[in-house]
Amino acid sequence: MVLLWQGTGTAPGTTRRRSQTMNVEADTTSDKNAQYAHPERLVTTQWLADHLGTPGLVVVESDEDVLLYETGHIPGAVKIDWHTDLNDPDVRDYVDGARFAELLGSKGIARDTTVVVYGDKGNWWAAYTLWVLSLFGHEDVRLLDGGRTLWIAEGREVTTDASRPTAVEYPVVERDDTTLRAFKDDVLAHLGNPIVDIRSPREYNGELAHMPDYPNEGALRTGHIPTARNVPWATAVADDGTYRSRAELEAIYQSGGLGLKDEDSVITYCRIGERSSHTWFALKHLLGIDRVRNYDGSWTEWGNTVRVPIVKGDEPGELPG
Amino acid sequence: MADDHSDDVPETFARIRADFLELSQQDRLLLLLDFSRELPELPERFASDPELLERVEECQAPVRAFTEVDPAGIVHFYASAPPEAPTTRGFAAILAEGLAGLTAEQVLALPDDYPFTLGLTEAVSLLRLRGMSGMLDRTKRQVREQLVP
């Protein structure tokens, strides 16, 4: 991972070891999570319950529904909305370093804060927020395994009391759009390397231009990027919404499944990049495939772009000539 | 901008709009949350047979709605959405309150862009507001269908 530490006071050319930047101890309570390549990226609901209020820890809720947080959230959690907070209001892109610094600082998040993200809908938007924080090189950002649904299913405390974080300084950091993020031209140059399309089978084979129930984010053409393999995002989770074990994930994405190798360069995509953030997280942090990029333009860009190659049907298809 | 067409909608819709516009962005969200809590329960005949309601495809949440025109030409709007979709419930509740007691003609005359005049674009986002727009479009279509002799 390329670290862009401009403005953080670290001299150019130096890197920090994660152990030095982790403010709050990693969750080592789960045997399942201990098997992952980067177990410190996940926390269990019990660990979070035990660590609420720990100095240096900020809990962030990111939901599809912009009001869900207000109906009840984990005590002390702050809200970051994928659309109104993380997206630039005009250009289809993420906010810039200055706006990102203002946002995180206002939520009480400093550069070395341990951030735990959770959300609705199977953690789609939580994983997306985690990924955007990673674009800005925020080092210690973790996902709550099972998300909001599991927290509530377990009868854990939620509150409508407003969280009033004390604003802190967050440095203005340049976003790194090359290491974890892919643009359309990157995808074209990547063809021949593994691509994982995590949409539903009917979006993949071209029957639908959008996910069932999401018609506003449709596209003029249907199908998938040539050679992309279809593994719907939910394949990666168990019934309770937590990620499957490392052995199960390996069987899905690595040998016995897609055949992804640790040294592969991989791109994930979906419709606007949120569900694919969830799979990106599994490949990058749970399986430890280092070079995984998320294509946030995804099908709403590809399926509306003139003359890009498209394959229909259930098969990945051939590389364009 | 929205202030320029304060007379283009029936009184309740105009009051709802004025209520939103006088608030800060964050308070507009909280007002929408209040609406979401006030979405009326479905009448028994719909609750026991949800298939009577039409799915609103424009909404990301599973919302169902139906509009009836009674013999006196008065419109009745029914909607249901789950508690984990408060934004959608809020949209439906605004329509339920605004449409109550209106005639079919008044409903058909409602401007299609009403949802976008509530000052919620910044707090909620254009994309999400299209859900309410979709609900209003469907309401008008259903009214139109029932007016056909």
Account of the 3D structure:
The complex is a heterodimer of chains A (321) and B (149). By secondary structure, chain A is α/β, with parallel strands linked by helices. Chain A is built from 11 helices and 9 strands. Chain A has helices at residues 18-21, 31-34, 45-51, 97-106, 124-135, 147-153, 184-190, 201-204, 246-253, 275-286, 298-302, and strands spanning 42-43, 57-61, 78-79, 114-118, 141-144, 195-197, 229-230, 265-269, 291-295. In chain A, the strands form 2 sheets. In chain A, strands 1-5-4-2-3 form a 5-stranded parallel beta sheet. In chain A, β8, α10 (275-286) and β9 form a beta-alpha-beta unit. In chain A, α5 crosses α10. The longest helix of chain A is centred in the middle third of the chain and has 12 residues, at 124-135. The model of chain A is unreliable at 1-20 (pLDDT under 50). In chain B, α1 crosses α4 (86-99), α2 (25-37) crosses α4 and α4 packs across α7 (126-147). Chain B has a 3-stranded antiparallel beta sheet with strand order 1-2-3. In chain B, β1 (54-55) and β2 form a beta hairpin. Chain B has 149 residues and is mainly alpha-helical. Chain B is globular and about 45 Å long. Helix content of chain B is 49%, strand content 9%. Chain B has helices at 11-21, 25-37, 44-47, 86-99, 104-108, 121-124, 126-147; strands spanning 54-55, 64-69, 75-80. The chains are: A alpha/beta (321), B mainly alpha (149).
List keywords for this structure.
heterodimer, A: 321 residues, alpha/beta, 5-stranded parallel sheet, 9 strands, 25% helix, globular, B: 149 residues, mainly alpha, 3-stranded antiparallel sheet
Shape of chain A: globular
| Largest interface in this structure | A-B, 16 and 26 residues
The quaternary organization reads as heterodimer
Series of H and E elements of chain A: HHEHEEHEHEHHEHEHEHEH
Secondary-structure blueprint of this entry?
The complex is a heterodimer of chains A (321) and B (149).
Chain A: H1 18-21, H2 31-34, E1 42-43, H3 45-51, E2 57-61, E3 78-79, H4 97-106, E4 114-118, H5 124-135, E5 141-144, H6 147-153, H7 184-190, E6 195-197, H8 201-204, E7 229-230, H9 246-253, E8 265-269, H10 275-286, E9 291-295, H11 298-302
Parallel strand pairs in A: 1-5, 2-3, 2-4, 4-5, 6-7, 6-8, 8-9
Chain B: H1 11-21, H2 25-37, H3 44-47, E1 54-55, E2 64-69, E3 75-80, H4 86-99, H5 104-108, H6 121-124, H7 126-147
